[in-house]
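Think of the structure tokens as a kind of shorthand, similar to the way a musician reads notation: each symbol stands for something richer, in this case the local conformation of the backbone. In the example below we present two proteins back to back. Begin with the first one, reading the sequence and then the tokens, and try to describe in your own words what changes along the chain.
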Amino acid sequence: MKLGESAALLRISGSSSQIEAESFSSQSGIQTENCSEGGQNIGYIENGDYAVYNNIDFGAGATSFQARVASGASGGNIEIRLDSLTGPLVGTCPVTGTGGWQTWATRTCSISGASGKHNVYLKFTGGSGYLFNINWFQFTGGR
């Protein structure tokens, strides 16, 4: 086992609410790659691409979305939608450039209208070219 992999395992077991971005149920347009923080991240994200995570349990209702992101460009947005690509928009998380494709920062935004179990669609929007990478994300509040 590599050092980076053990660090990723510790991080996952330390926080049950974190969802590794590469653990998507389905996706369009993205690829996985090795992550400088250990494990993998999703990258090669362009405008209109998306990733789907099935059966996410928001409990009584989540109020916040956090994502660990990196961008060597100007970034873009993560739209958080429920049950389909055109489903209810519960939040939009802006991602700005971090200075490198493996230069990680945590971005947080408010969400509303997410409770119970849903398939979560993260839809990526922005300008031309690659937007950003995502290592992990989590929903907090209302559990």
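Once you have a description of the first chain, move to the second and do the same.
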Amino acid sequence: MDKTAEIYGIRSVIEAINSSKDIDKVFIQTGLKGTLIGKLESLIRKNKINFSYVPTQKLDRLSKKNHQGVIARISPIKFLTMDQFGEKLAAIKNPFVLILDQVNDVRNFGAIIRTAEISGVDGIIIQNSSSAPINSDTIKTSAGAIFNIPICKVNHIKDAIYHLKSIDISIVSASEKANKNIYDVDFTKPVAVIMGSEQRGINKSIINLSDEVVKLPMYGKIQSLNVSVACGVFLYEVVRQRI
């Protein structure tokens, strides 16, 4: 865990939430009881903050400091709300958006951010839960690109899709199970490309909301690509068509 982005102790984490800090995730010791921890749990749920219950041994590995059973990881960047992100997109002539559905590997996430920034993506949308944290590894793998591209965090990807559709942005999902080829889709219009996790791909409910579901042609025996590599191919097909 990035030592420059940690808060320890129940009261400190409560204060951080109340002061609107961008908290990436809270780790709570399993079995912790009391009025104060109850207040913290209530705040976490009210603000829809990503959290998990972990054994004290994990907390001790995360930090040698007196954590009192609670450690919060603070994001080094300011996330946008969907409304804020929508305002930014409204000022862009031909929006190009990337949506990541539960990509949870920090190095893949960082590599994707790097490619997205350099290929002209106007912003990235991620889900509040089950997404890779933004820590020192993410920043390093992104080569600092994370500070140059807007990132919007939402509670549900589906809500983001409805919002994008309402402003006439087409939704294109990447799936190896698709029938249509990536090279048969028009990316010259406003578009949001969705990439899923390596383990589960894109959620079926999100696939059902998509305007297009497309795949990359594959000719080898291994019928899959690392998500950051596949994402790079998709993003640069958008670039190729728009040049």
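Compare your description with these statements about the second chain. The chain has two domains: 3-74, 82-242.
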